[in-house]
Design goal:
The protein is mainly alpha-helical. The protein has one domain. Helix content is 70%, strand content 3%. The protein has a three-stranded antiparallel sheet, covered by helices on one side. Helix 3 packs parallel to helix 13, helix 5 packs parallel to helix 7 and helix 6 packs antiparallel against helix 7. The two termini are 42 Å apart. It is found in: Cell membrane. Its EC number is 2.4.99.28.
Length: 379
């Protein structure tokens, strides 16, 4: 009798364990996961569509860019799954080491033989198997570090926060990369706000940062030409304003329903950066206002689900981490799309999950894996 009872007890415990495991595996925010991977798959399609001419010109291979993007997508899926299964609180312990490694990588871009100088910028590192852009990793490392730091209340951290920002943003600006610097600044300020900082700090922060960004834009000739183009779109139509004019021409050609997938004219070397920063212009041209609106609503949905995950997080670290990652997607999307419709000057910022680029794609999927893990542990 005891034997039968013990067998029955073990069987019950085993079934309960299975149910617990299933609950953990399937309790993540599935709508968020579906939206992220649907947008990423659409991005792979658009990378191929927008890069055919460029691939033939540069590599004599129309499939070169889509093959690379697919490779990164597979790596991104693996990274996403690992982070979705890994307890998010591990990142609290890794916050400082990850920030330290990222700062070293940001400095390594200037070391000859390691850093890559392209188009007058030092933004990449050759690590042998792949090319890494440390500034993309810096976004996530900063979010994790600030989420860990702001978890505990602290009365006088305003100047420490300014010093931290100056250190991270200063290294990114030396590359130079104003677009990424603006994203990092925006995310950091939002996290500082979400942590419950007093409003008077923002009355000091925002004018100071606006002054710094304005000064940086004025001292660099190419940034100054972008500002001039923004205020006067007819200035230098074959030079400084050429890209934004072609972007607007592409978006305008799309009309309500677009010219059809694969039928863009701008991708045939009329539009610079057609598969990276300006890819939304190709989307707008081929799918029209309706297709562009669907993409915008997809980003809004992802950000909303991310904020929803944050609102249900069981602890302050999880809440700030989800808020920071969701804000990252929102800010980067707003900056890219704002530049595409001439609401802000061109900044060279990629469109999340869609633009061609390995570092941005993989790090974003890693970050969404963390949000997925947070969503499993609702408060």
């Amino acid at each position: 009798m005891k034997f039968l009872l013990s067998k029955l007890f073990r069987k019950k415990s085993s079934s309960e364990a299975v149910r617990t495991v299933k609950k953990k595996l399937f309790s993540a925010d599935r709508w968020l996961i579906v939206a992220v991977f649907a947008l990423s798959l659409f991005g792979v399609l658009m990378v191929y569509d927008s890069s055919v001419a460029i691939g033939i010109r540069d590599f004599s291979d129309q499939y070169y860019f889509v093959r690379e993007q697919l490779k990164w997508f597979v790596v991104g899926i693996v990274v996403f799954i690992v982070c979705a299964r890994m307890q998010y609180r591990v990142w609290y312990t890794l916050a400082l080491p990850l920030l330290f490694i990222t700062l070293l990588l940001l400095m390594a871009v200037f070391i000859p033989g390691i850093g890559i100088n392209a188009l007058g910028a030092h933004r990449w590192i050759n690590v042998g198997l792949f090319i890494l852009q440390p500034a993309e990793l810096a976004k996530l490392a900063m979010i994790i570090y600030l989420a860990a730091w702001f978890t505990h209340p602290e009365k006088s951290r305003f100047f420490s926060f300014l010093l931290f920002l100056a250190m991270v943003v200063g290294l990114v600006m030396l590359e130079p990369d104003l677009g990424t610097s603006m994203i990092i600044l925006s995310i950091a300020i939002l996290l500082y706000f979400f942590s419950g900082a007093p409003f008077r700090h923002f009355s000091l922060l925002i004018p100071l940062i606006a002054l710094v960004i304005g000064g940086l834009a004025l001292i660099a000739p190419y940034r100054m030409s972008r500002l001039t183009t923004f205020f006067n779109p007819h200035y230098d139509p074959l030079g400084a304003s050429y890209q934004i004019r072609q972007v607007l021409l592409g978006l305008g050609s799309g009309g309500l329903t677009g010219v059809g997938i694969g039928k863009s004219r701008q991708k045939y070397e009329y539009l610079p950066e057609a598969n990276t920063d300006s890819i939304f212009a190709i989307i707008g041209e081929e799918t029209g206002f309706i297709g562009g609106a669907i993409i915008i609503f997809s980003y809004m949905f992802i950000v909303w689900r991310g904020f929803r995950v944050a609102s249900q997080a069981p602890d302050p670290f999880g809440r700030l981490l989800a808020l920071g990652i969701s804000s990252w997607v929102a800010v980067q999307t707003i900056i890219n799309l704002g530049a595409m419709v001439a609401l802000i000057p061109l900044t060279g910022v990629p469109l999340p999950f869609i633009s061609y680029g390995g570092s941005s794609f993989i790090v974003l999927l890693l970050a969404m894996g963390i949000v997925s893990n947070i969503s499993k542990e609702k408060s």
